[in-house]
Amino acid sequence: RQAGKLADKWLKTSPVTVPIDLLLMRLTEVFNAVPKLIFILIVAALLPHDQNIWVLIGLIGLLNWTDIALFVRSELLRVRELDYVTAARGMGFSDRRTFWRHAFPNALRPVLVIFAFNMANAILLEAALSFLGFGGSTLRGISWGSLLESVRVQAGAWWVGIPSGLAIALMVMTINNLGEILAGKQH
User: Fold this and answer.
1) Rounded to whole angstroms, how far apart are CA atoms 74 and 100?
2) Which of 73, 95, 106 minimizes the C-alpha distance to 10?
3) Terminal alpha carbon distance of the chain
4) What confidence tens digit (pLDDT) does each residue in 55-80 have?
5) How far apart are CA 95 and CA 111, in angstroms?
6) What is the pTM of this model?
7) Residue pair 68/118 in contact by the 8 Å Cβ criterion
8) Is the CB of residue 47 less than 8 Å from the CB of residue 129?
9) Is 93:85 a contact under the CB 8 Å cutoff?
10) For labelling, which of 9, 93, 156, 160 has a CA lying 20 to 30 Å from the CA of 118?
11) What are the DSSP calls for the chain, one per residue?
């Protein structure tokens, strides 16, 4: 009977957590509704052309957190219903201890997989923006995308783009393979 009361207590949401969860999920949906590349292009066009890489990284990070936030929430909702969490509640552990000792560590591994895939997408987005000339003059010749952009300017030297194009492809493939290894799907 005591375990049933604790389980009912943890499953019921208090008036404070429901609005916070609701507001965070609506904020996530708003950020998900904005097309990332178009938004970054608009903001980068409005900023001075001598911007540095940190502005570009900040814009990419501002828009890429939503997938991870949605996945963390769904994983925690899934883990909340598993037997070991119910057993921890039944043993009388506090909600905080149950979360930090049982729910969070077991929800973290799948989140690392999503993080790896988002990292690959962020690299591709940065390369695309640098190719288009955004990210400031400090990236000229440093970013893989700006190296590819220099090939566009000098079409006669097409071979200059091969190393940077291969570097982008290998980096994205390596990060995606890391994500598959973390997921346990590697053959």
Assistant:
1) 16
2) 95
3) 47
4) 778 888 888 888 888 888 888 888 88
5) 21
6) 0.69
7) yes
8) no
9) no
10) 160
11) -HHHHHHHHHHSPPTTHHHHHHHHHHHHHHHHHS-HHHHHHHHHHHS-TT--HHHHHHHHHHHHHHHHHHHHHHHHHHHHTSHHHHHHHHTT--HHHHIIIIIHHHHHHHHHHHHHHHHHHHHHHHHHHHHTT-S-GGGTTTSHHHHHHHHHH-TT-GGGHHHHHHHHHHHHHHHHHHHHHHHT---
pLDDT, tens digit (0-9, with 9 covering 90-100), for 132-174:
777 656 666 577 777 777 777 777 777 777 888 888 899 989 9
Q: Which two tokens stand for residue 175?
A: 């990060």
Distance CA 130, CA 124 (A): 10
Structure tokens at 11: 């499953």
User: Which amino acid is residue 145, in one-letter code?
Assistant: G
